[in-house]
Design brief:
The chain is mainly alpha-helical. The protein has a single domain, classed as Arc Repressor Mutant, subunit A, CATH 1.10.10. It has 8 helices and no strands. Helix 3 packs across helix 4 and helix 5 crosses helix 8.
Length: 182
């Protein structure tokens, strides 16, 4: 009886991506992957590097992919993980760079708020920055963030809540510093 259960698992069909299918996937998903990485890293040049690293990781891990029914989500998750690693490396080195001026739009008041938020975000942990970027930078829903990160929806909600609290605290600290300079 025990061998019967194992044989059902062993005989289950496993769909994998062919090399040609993966090349096609990477080519078709590169623009969206770049938008995703740029919103997380807030740097279009670093996003290019992240997408390239993610493509290499996808290529190297192509044989490990099982049940290739949603390779787009699989590649997006790789991009998110590469960006998370980059955010962690940056936070260990020093504060993150300010968002490029080319990524800000709107009135002077909106630019001031955007600048304030950009500075405050640099004080968050890499995981907090990632959650904030996916939710507000890419406008993803909680279930979409969960799919991209591999976290449970409840965990995403909790991290989003705590990340927003930390962001508010960082913004308040930035305001206090600004007021003390006056």
């Amino acid at each position: 009886m025990e061998s019967r259960g194992r044989s059902l698992i062993a005989d289950a069909p496993v769909a994998t991506l062919s090399d040609d299918d993966l090349v096609e996937l990477l080519a078709s998903q590169t623009p969206e992957a770049h938008r995703l990485a740029a919103s997380i890293l807030r740097d279009p040049i670093a996003a290019e590097d992240a997408v390239q690293d993610a493509a290499m990781a996808a290529w190297n891990g192509r044989r490990k992919l099982r049940h290739a029914d949603n390779p787009t989500a699989w590649f997006a998750a790789i991009v998110v993980n590469v960006c998370r690693d980059e955010l962690r490396r940056r936070s260990k080195r020093w504060r993150l760079p300010e968002p490029p001026a080319s990524m800000t739009f709107g009135s002077p008041d909106q630019l001031a708020v955007s600048d304030e938020i950009g500075r405050a975000v640099t004080w968050l942990s890499a995981d907090e920055q990632l959650i904030i970027a996916l939710r507000y930078g890419r406008d993803l829903t909680v279930p979409q963030i969960a799919a991209h990160t591999g976290l449970r929806e409840g965990t995403v909600k909790s991290r989003l809540h705590h990340s927003l609290e930390h962001l508010r605290s960082a913004m308040a600290a930035e305001r206090r510093v600004e007021e003390s300079r006056r």
